[in-house]
Prior knowledge:
The protein is α/β, with parallel strands linked by helices. Helices cover about 25% and strands about 30% of the residues. It has one domain: Metallo-beta-lactamase, Chain A, CATH 3.60.15. This is MBL fold metallo-hydrolase. It comes from Nostoc edaphicum CCNP1411.
Amino acid sequence: xxFRQLFDPETxxxxxxxADLETKTAILVDPVLEQVxxxxxxxxxxxxxxxxxxxxxxxxxxxxxxxxxxxxxGCLGIVPENAQAICADRFMKNGEVLELGSLxxxxxxxxxxxxxxxxxxxxxxxxxxxxxxxxxxxxxxxFQSGNAGIMYDAITQRxxxxxxxxxxxxxxxxxxxxxxxxxxxxxxNSRLVGRNRSEFIQLMGNLNLPNPKKxxxxxxxxxxxxxxxx
Length: 230
């Protein structure tokens, strides 16, 4: 398996390129519109054919590159089940597995940041957590039908039941962290460690974070799979 972590500095977003080296086919997870040419150049240099763009959720902080990549490469756009994106080619529900050569990408429903959100477990070892579980943190739950209690349940009952050595690759990091593990987060994640469900809900309800700068343009564009024109 080829696995690359790519970064958008404006929004601190991670995009993940995963590929099967035998078939030379690839998946991009959470591509960013402004980084599409970077991603296409890397695909070209590595001799990879893009088959799927996979979204963890409908983003509020950046516009997805899926529409542009779909137009340029003919790849398919995939979003979580019940996501408000009727333009998607496919929806993935909890437990469903996307196969591409030797790659097996299992969807794990992790709502809470938004009302539809998937983490993706790649070949049983690499967990792409989107905006659910972050390194020593978690995604906010105060807009887009977010729900702190549902997020707590998803993290503790689904992600934290995976083996401790499972590698955690988040959708964002604002401090320069790149990778963690389930075992590390169970021990050191300050949002979750030592808190029960009620205490977590109270904490998340008092964060008082400003809205993402691009929320007004990003959400409607991402509901069109990243197409900027209405």
